[in-house]
Every structure is written in structure tokens, then in C-alpha cells.
Amino acid sequence: MVKHEFQTEVNDLLNLMIHSLYSNKEIFLRELISNASDALDKLNYLCLTDEKYKSINYTPKISLSINKDAKTLTISDTGIGMDENDLINNLGTIARSGTKGFLSSMSGDAKKDSSLIGQFGVGFYSAFMVANKIDVISRKALSDKAYKWSSDAKSYDIEEASKDGFGTDIVLHLSDDEFNDDFRIESIVKKYSNHIPYPIFMYKNEWIEPKEGEKEGHNEIKNSQINKASALWRLPKSSLKDSDYNEFYKQISHDSSDPLFHIHTKAEGKIEYTTLFYVPSVEPFDLFRVDYQSGVKLYVKRVFITDDAKELLPPYLRFVRGVMDVEDLPLNVSREILQENRILATVKDQSVKKILTELEKMLNNDREKYMKFYSLFGKVLKEGLYGFSANKDELLNLCLFKSSLKDGFISLKEYKANMQKDQKSIYYISGKNEAMLRNSPLLESFKKQGIEVLICDEEIDTIVMPMVYEFDKTPIKAINNSDINDEIKNDEKIDETAHAGLIVKIKEALKDEVKDVKLSNRLSDSAACLIYDKNDPDYAMQMMFKQMGQEAPSVKPILEINPNHQIFTKLEANELMVNDISNLLLNMAKISEGIPVENPTEFAKKLTNIMIKAL
Ligand code: ADP
Ligand code: MG
Asked: Where do the segments described as A lie (predicted)?
């Protein structure tokens, strides 16, 4: 017998399991059955694809039994099993990097935290919530040696053992009497594991009524299947209730809340497949992690192939959970095949289209539900607008925006319906701070004309909005761009020549800081504003590049001045202070766009000078 210490992270985790997470203990069984099912999947796959395993007599099943007197619950499977190394690596360490994040993301709220357990893939250790000692007896397929792993949650021992047949027996020495009960265990299995594709048997004591001639009845141990063991996605829609769908979702997602909705599709025809997709009602913990787990499992003719294929759906749909079961693929699909297979590519395309179509239906028919969806995953969807990705039009249909004219969110379709007769483009303003955007001088002429402007205050907007050039044949344009200069309506014509002299002087004063100085037709109240030349990245975009560690060319803005503003007419009469005033105008325009003033001390000095003069 060799004693082993747990990896530090495992110790931390076990402490947490035992001392803090107690609100939802029953999920330990879901976790152990899900592991057993994974182990059966793995052996099933090898038996079908690998010559070496073809001789194995494989009868996939999971068995549960309770020994009331000994207070043990045993979960057995006939799956792939583990050898000594597997036991050490799988049940003594936490392998996945994402999992280590589990500990740091614990909120301290026991209920929330325990619902995270499954998601983080630390399922096995959750058994210590209900057991003070666990024995794992396992024999790996094709091996003639078996091992026993034993632990009291402080350290673990491994020794050789004997075991008939391949697979794993997990013996829980229950610390909690609640689970020393057939009925309780059976009901937990039905709740979480009804649609595991393998049969789950339970050995139960059953009371047998006395037969004729017998005086008393007696107890008998009976072995019966307690789950449906059907691949739920293969059942006809008409036979499934919402509760069936929700239960299955919880099983595959390890999420304990009901999903927002599901999409069940059976495609017959040239390419046959079945898909069942879910959109969760809570944000998956790793949604914004680079190493997020794919939520979609790939099956070929009901045989589980992988749950680690991020290419099954585009990254902007990474919140989707579910199953893709394809008929005409070889079972031994490799990574390369996954990426290049034509059939799979078609299934993927059609699946994406289907999901987007269903979302659009929801947007049109159930706005409230759609808002719930959008507030959770709208940001992720918008990532799909990046670059030249497919389905951009469909995605644009699904995007919602804040509006300069009303509260709440509008779609681009709604925007278009509200456009003025001669309005040429869809206008937006983007930046970090909603209040600042709403008060930007750039909006003045739009407000005056009653033209709607989209208020894009999400970080992702800064990157993707310049990449969506049009929606339904209408150009989409930023209002801080010189591109729209001749689209802006103004009652008063600007007389360019009249002020030419002063403009030259301001230009000279600011020549290192701005690309150009121009008279503006965008302003009514403010004295000046900043815009950017047609193909130049604006300030928010430049900051984005910087954040991503990219060298962005430093681009100078264009200063636009309101020719009807008093300050301008006064300056024309008295050009003595033109240098200081120009500088102040530029910096004020910067401040109103949330751009930091480069030299605040000098700015303050100049402002003070002017104040003194004014007094
Ligand atoms: P996860 O299932 O997310 O990988 P777990 O903590 O539930 O994390 O399990 C850890 C690992 O232990 C599994 O990945 C698997 O390799 C191994 N394991 C657990 N239970 C079994 C089992 N019944 N048969 C074979 N391997 C198992
Ligand atoms: Mg697991």
C-alpha cells in the first residue's frame, strides 16, 4: 500500500466541499454517474474503432447498490477503467487549467458555489460531501491488474486489488444518512440522469407479498433498471415535454437552472442529422475565458465522439449547449476531419442558421424573453460581426442598440422604420460612457433635426461597429467621422471664405495636435468638437489597439468649430489671444468626448489667465 498526498489545489477544494458546500449535496450522484457514462462512452468508442478492443465482451451498464448496515453506496460501471497512473492523475490532481480557476471564483454563497462544481469538472471530489471515506476499485480495459484507491479526503492510498471484469466500482462510506436510502437515490437518478444513454440498474430490497400457502412476506434483493436510458434527442418531439427537455439540459450542462429555450431539429434528406440545442438562462462561468469549454457534444449514429470540439459552432455561439448527432460520418473522426469534413461543415452551417432564425423569431414574438437572452449573450453575439464572418446580416438583425431618441433598446429594423425621408445612413456614436455619449456635442445637429442616433456604449462596439458597413443596403456610419459631413443638414449655410483668415491662425496654433481645423455644421450650442478623417481610427479604437498591445499609428483628430458661436465671432474681432483660446477649445472638445487632456497643468494655467482677464 502506498500513501500519496493530494495536490494542494485538491486539498483546498476538498476542504471547501466538506466545510462550505452543503446546500445541494445530491449532485454528487449526478457527477459520479456522469463519470461512469463518460467511461462507458470511451470504451464504446474504442470497441467500435480499435481492433485491439474488438474482442472485449462489452455490456455497457451502470449499477447502484446500497448496503444499509455497512452504510455504503456503490456506483459501478463497465467502462474504460483506470490503471495506477490514471488513478493518481485523475483522482489526485486537478488537471484542467480552467478548473483551477474554480477555487478563485468561489463566491462564498454555498448554493451558487455548489452549482458551479459540475461546470468546473471537479465532479468526482463532490462525493466527499456525503462520504467520509471513498474506495475506488478499478481495472482498465485490456489490463489484467486491478487497483484500489482509498481516501479519507486528507490523503490517499493505492494498492493492488482484484476485480472481475473491466470498469470501476466507487464505494462511498456515507457520512450522511440521508443517502442511505433506496428511494432517495432512485429519485436523484431520475431527476438528473434519466437520459444517460446507458442503463442504470439498482439493487433494491423489495417487499414480496406472501404467496398462497405462505404465512409472511419477505424482503428480496431485486435488480431493476431505473432510468430511461434513451438518447433523448432521438425521441420524437411530440413525445417530449418541456420538463423532459429541461431535465436533459441539466444532465449535459451541469447547470442547475432551467434553460431559456431549446431548439430540437431532425434533418432528413441529403444529410441526415439530429440536433438539440439549448440556450442557458445563466452565464456559463467560462464564457469570457480563452480556454472556455465547448458546450456541444458530437455524436455519430448515437455514438459519443467528443465534447471538446470548439469548431462545431462559431465562437459567437459558444454559450449554446447541446448535442449534434450526425449519420454519415465515420466513427473515427479525427481533428482534421472535424475541421475539413464537408458533411459536418453543412451540419454546422445549417445549425447556425437554425439557431439564428429561432432567435429572430423570439425577437419578433417574445420581446421580453429576447431581452433576457440579449442581456446575457448579446455581447457574445456581436463578436460575430468582426471581420468578414458569414451570417453578418442575420446577426445584425439580432443586435439591439440604445437610442438617442428613446429609452430601452431598438433593432436596426426598428431604426430604419423610424428614419427620416431623406436620411441616407444609419448613424451611431460609440464610446465607453453612456452619459457622455448622450451629451456629446456631436449629437447636437441630429437632436435638432430629430434624427435618431444609436448609442453604442459597449466595449465590443468600438471594434465591430466600424466593420459593419451597412444594414439592409443602408450604410452605417459613425457621427464622429468626416465621412458624413455632407449628410448633415443645417439651416444656415456656412460661408467658408468669410472666416478663412482666422481658421488659418487656429490651424497654425494647433498644428502639432490636429490634422485639420474646419468650420462645422454639426454644432448648435457647443463651440467646438472633434471628428476623425474618413479612414482614421477614432480615439476609442486607438485605445482598443493599445489595450490589445498593438502599435497603433497615433492619429490626430480634426477640430471643428461652430462658426455661429459667440466665442468665434469675438475671437475674430480680437485675435490677440488666438493661441491660448485655440488650445482651450481643443482641450474642451477633448474633455466632452472623454479624452484626457495631454497637459492638464498648462490647460489650467491658460484657463486661469482667461478667467483673470474676464474678471
Ligand atoms: P471530469 O469528469 O470533468 O473530468 P471529474 O472530477 O468528475 O472531472 O473526474 C476526474 C477524472 O477521473 C475523469 O476525467 C476521469 O478521467 C476519471 N474518472 C472518474 N470517474 C471515472 C470512472 N468511473 N471511470 C473511469 N475514469 C473515471
Ligand atoms: Mg465528471
From this structure: 1-335
